[in-house]
Amino acid sequence: MLNVEEQVAVLALPFKYAPFLESVNKRGLALRDVVCGTFAIGWFGEKQDKRLVKMQCFVTGETVNLYMRPIEGITIVADMEAVEIVEYEDRVVIPVPAAAGTEYRASRQLPPYGPRGKPVVVTQPEGKGFTFEGNVVRGYLSELFVPYMDPSEEWYFKTYFDIGEYGFGPYSSSLKAGIDCPHNAEYMDGYYANGAGSPFCCVTEEVSLVVRTVANSGNYDYVFDWEFKTSGSIKLSAGRTGTLEVRATDYTNAEQMIGDQHGTLVAPNTIGVFHDHFATYHLDLDVDGPENSFVKANLRTVRAEGCTTPRKSYWTVVSETAKTEADARIAHNEGPRASFFCESRRKTRLGNAVGYRLIRSGAAATALMSEEDYPQKRADYTKKGLWVTPYHKSEKWPSGVYVDMSHGEDNLAVWSMRNRSIENTDIVVWYTIGVHHVPSQEDFPLMPMLNMGFELRPYNFFEHNPVIGTQPFGKH
Ligand SMILES: [Cu+2]
Predict the structure, then answer these.
(1) Running DSSP on this structure, what letter comes out for residue 154?
(2) Which single residue of 153, 188, 264, 364 has CA 20 to 30 Å from 89?
(3) Selected catalytic residue, list 160, 171, 187, 220
């Protein structure tokens, strides 16, 4: 992992490096307006004996939206141990996109303004309806793989493992009442090595209970919600907002762009590059105790032969309990299937196995890079949407422990090759929600929030609908 301190140390290097100063000068930019960022270099088959990182620089000047103003065409490689630039190339000069139109702060917008929203007030006249009492579910977001689809010199390596390479903890945002969470929310502090604690998690009631954290991953802001409903359902969502990662270009109109493209023209001289978001959740669900099994509820069409009615067909559920890991590696496009669920050996009074099911949402993209491509090897678990492993305390992060410059030798797909038994044991479900992001002009200069998620829902867990019998609001 790249820690904050070592990234800060190498980020000072370009400003003392003569060839870079010359590149800035050549482009007619003011050095005081230039800021740089560090980018994990990945692994592309080469032998590595140094901890290297690449840098890309941006121009601020009249805007705070520096991500919309990349300085293109320059490759800077730094050695993080030696804290020195070890490779530098200024390959091509491409215009830096203009600052005009990139401002997103409400206070800096100019007329004509859009319609004004009416105030919304959330009140709980009788106080909060919850108390904190230990853990409910052991689950967390374990990796976020974001590969970009531009194979050019300055972009090919941009295949981020946001959690394994950078971590989300150090980049968690302090949450502000009324902006990040409603006014009735309660906050919890987070603590990280090498970082000061700050409110990083809020809990709020909006009929259901929502636990929210926000992380800034470079240009992206991610909003992670766990919504606990009174029905026993848990909705997990990963919202994305912030700014696109854009590439500067000579193009000023989409009609000039012909041939194989790697993005959408979202502003003059600005291409929003195609990419994916694969968010992998580690879900250690203990449904009525740790010993669970994973069941696939497959739907099968049956021809209604020999029936006395005119119907020709119907579908039915053919359940299949996964015995080993291989039985539970599931691609998102496999089906048709009613659901997957984890069940315990305990039964309801009616004799159904007690369980929780996982309901997929529309965010079911799977990796489209070829299997021999290096970023894909490092994240080959993204070829499947769901994996089940027996719980093992060292298997926490699906892309491995040492993700920066990893070769894909220690990851979920590798562990799962042992094909261990997963029946009636403490199992972990690894579920990946995926989106292929084809940017559009609405994503500029700041993207509206896009949510992707899934739901964990009781499946014969209760004897009947648990909401029946709860008192309506305000009734005593
Ligand atoms: Cu995106």
Answers:
(1) T
(2) 264
(3) 220
